[in-house]
From TrEMBL:
<dbReference type="InterPro" id="IPR002701">
    <property type="entry name" value="CM_II_prokaryot"/>
</dbReference>
<dbReference type="InterPro" id="IPR006218">
    <property type="entry name" value="DAHP1/KDSA"/>
</dbReference>
<dbReference type="InterPro" id="IPR013785">
    <property type="entry name" value="Aldolase_TIM"/>
</dbReference>
<dbReference type="InterPro" id="IPR036263">
    <property type="entry name" value="Chorismate_II_sf"/>
</dbReference>
<dbReference type="InterPro" id="IPR052899">
    <property type="entry name" value="Class-I_DAHP_synthase"/>
</dbReference>
<protein>
    <recommendedName>
        <fullName>chorismate mutase</fullName>
        <ecNumber>5.4.99.5</ecNumber>
    </recommendedName>
</protein>
<dbReference type="Pfam" id="PF01817">
    <property type="entry name" value="CM_2"/>
</dbReference>
<dbReference type="Pfam" id="PF00793">
    <property type="entry name" value="DAHP_synth_1"/>
</dbReference>
<keyword id="KW-0808">Transferase</keyword>
<dbReference type="InterPro" id="IPR036979">
    <property type="entry name" value="CM_dom_sf"/>
</dbReference>
<feature type="domain" description="Chorismate mutase">
    <location>
        <begin position="261"/>
        <end position="352"/>
    </location>
</feature>
Amino acid sequence: MELELEPLRLPSDNERPFVIAGPCSAETEEQVMTTARQLANYGCHMFRAGIWKPRTKPGGFEGNGEKALPWMQQVKKETGMLTATEVATPEHVELALKYGIDVLWVGARTTANPFAMQALADALKGTDVPVLVKNPTNPDLELWIGALERLNLAGIKRLGAIHRGFSSYDNKIYRNLPTWQIPIELHRRIPDLPIVNDPSHIGGRRELIAPLCQQAMDLGFDGLIVESHCDPDKAWSDAKQQVTPDVLDYILSLLVIRDETVTTEGIVQLRKQIDEIDNQLMEMLSKRMRVCREIGYYKKEHNMTVLQTSRYNEILDKRGAQGALCGMAPEFVAKVFENIHEESVRQQIEIINK
Ligand SMILES: O=C(O)C(=O)C[C@]1(C(=O)O)C=C[C@@H](O)C=C1
């Protein structure tokens, strides 16, 4: 289905990036108000704080629940900032709306669960609140789009997406792998859907927030949602990935904002060159597949298996080393040749089964 969207109509809609900032969790009234005042002084328009916290394991701080909602009202009243929080159940939706929360977001674990998404969509029916949907924990674009569709079918048109990265078993650098091609593909499929980057959850470490924000801007993301706490080291949740409002302001001040729409004669010429090279690449690929099909007939005649592992390894090693010499990432070269090999095997299987 095609999403029927309306602009988010947030106070800084025309600025890129629009920024939603605030602590991971609303811990105490004092922590909420101190952080909010500092953020508002730096010109922040939207304040986030977790009221209900889905924790991986029991025993951690799971949020103050309804008790913290009047603090959010106080933030809005005193600073004029809009407020945003995560909702995961119809009860959360009801309470958040009762206390005038302006922007809701859906967490990654909820997005991954179609039953929970449908329950949220039903609870939101008839409201006009903007809803931002985080990517599911697993890199499944269809599941992400499905969650947006459920909300849209319930009449929610002020929709956005939050890219918070994807879980992985073995993660060294990032807390959640960015896998940028997924939000890039989301943007290609639904160009009018605003996409917000969440560097705090992708990075999991303060030092990664600035480079991730810049990368999101380089890719043309619309906004940022960043965890900011008046005293991050003492935070009750996600201490390592929160920054003080002044550090956040410094990070934002250094961002280089690029314009997606500017196309100069220079880039038009370069794109012509790319088109020409892509044509050559396609011709070369089609030549290679022709030879592979010939080998396929040979294999059929001589009763050989399609998969020839030692030859395949030889190709991966040789081209990987060559790629490194040309300054290309080894994973990229491996992926290219793995895909070429997969197609070649597919075509040969077709031939030997004819
Ligand atoms: O060398 C072969 O046997 C081929 O069929 C070619 C090719 C390839 O695409 O390079 C395809 C399948 C084999 O597993 C190994 C290599």
